[in-house]
Amino acid sequence: APAVAEVTPHLDLEKEKITQTAPRLKLTTRPIDQTHLSLGFRALSIHDPQRFAESVLSAILGGGAGSRLFQNIRETLGLAYAIGSDADFLHDTGQFSVHAGLNTKNTEKALAEILKEVKEIRDNIVTSEELTRAKEMLKGHLQLGLEDSHSVLDFHLRQEIATGKILTPEQVVEKLEAVSLEDINSVGKRIFRPD
User: Fold this and answer.
1) CB 74, CB 82: distance < 8 Å
2) Secondary structure of the chain: what % helix, strand, coil (to 5)?
3) Which of 57-71, 130-144, 155-169 has the least mean pLDDT?
4) What is the mean pLDDT of residues 132-144?
5) CA separation for the pair 7, 13 (Å, rounded)
6) What 3-state DSSP class applies to 84?
7) How far apart (Å, rounded) are the C-alpha atoms in residues 129 and 83?
8) Phi and psi dihedrals of 56, rounded to 5?
9) Helix (H, G, I), strand (E, B), or coil: what is residue 172?
């Protein structure tokens, strides 16, 4: 088998070519009553120091039952069966996405409410309680994700392949703990842009 250095993508990758200059929509229709919606934003790469703030932002916005999207779109307004957000970090770019499963008749209203939540988290400082809850959730997921030797190997190998360096779980926790309210606001402004 080739050495890790020979297969590590960070050594020789074609750079992303950005061609999008305006928002785009792709729609696929089927004769069913449920809509699966995914709202995507160009986001941070795995090398960006603010990626930990993006992870915390995603947890606040759509990371589980305590998140803004779950509480406001699903519980309060009843517009979605399932809703959440994800931050994916790639070599020279990244993706932030909000995904929802909802009744087709609720699509337009749900999208408007989701965009309202995105704008709210971009334009206003989140609460310290939300910040603490999101950090604790991410730390808990990290610990649960490292319960067996295969998961530990996966945790380290993915970092080596993606960046050529490895952070220990303790270092990841330190990076998450260092995220401030201002960091969340800053990264929200970087990601949630009209273009």
Assistant:
1) yes
2) 50, 15, 35
3) 155-169
4) 95
5) 11
6) strand
7) 21
8) -70, -40
9) helix
